[in-house]
């Protein structure tokens, strides 16, 4: 449970407010971001990523790449919406 508290504190520091009511992929935002970072790190450690770089994955040729690109778009929209409501 302490990881959730730590995640909430990090989000509070980044956004300047608590956004714990926001869900990311059906989970609290701290948990969703943690899972996303794990998935992204796993993808970045592949030989394909090391050989071809990020531009290859932006093309979305594989299903896993398209799924990760979709998640990136969702996270960006949540971040933009949160920042816009605070400004």
Structural commentary:
The chain is mostly helical. The protein is 75% helix and 5% strand. The chain has a two-stranded antiparallel sheet with strand order 1-2. It is elongated, with a radius of gyration of 15 Å. The mean pLDDT is 78.
Instruction: Quickly count the helices.
Output: 5
% residues in beta strands: under 5%
- Given as residue ranges, the uncertain stretches (5+ residues, pLDDT < 50) are none
> Level of helix content?
over 70%
Question: End-to-end distance, in Å?
Answer: 31 Å
Q: What about the largest sheet? A: 2 strands, antiparallel
Round the Cα radius of gyration to an integer and report it. 15 Å
- Kindly state the mean pLDDT as a whole number? 78
Strands ordered across the widest β-sheet: 1-2
Overall 3D form = elongated
| Helix/strand structural class | mainly alpha
Helix and strand pattern: HEEHHHH
Based on DSSP secondary structure assignment, what is the total number of beta strands?
2
């Amino acid at each position: 449970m302490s990881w959730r508290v730590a995640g909430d504190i990090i989000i509070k520091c980044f956004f300047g407010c608590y956004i714990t009511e926001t869900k990311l992929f059906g989970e609290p935002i701290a948990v969703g971001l943690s899972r996303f970072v794990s998935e992204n790190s796993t993808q970045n450690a592949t030989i394909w990523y090391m050989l071809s770089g990020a531009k290859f994955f932006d093309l979305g040729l594989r299903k896993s790449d398209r799924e990760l690109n979709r998640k990136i778009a969702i996270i960006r929209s949540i971040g933009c919406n949160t920042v816009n409501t605070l400004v």
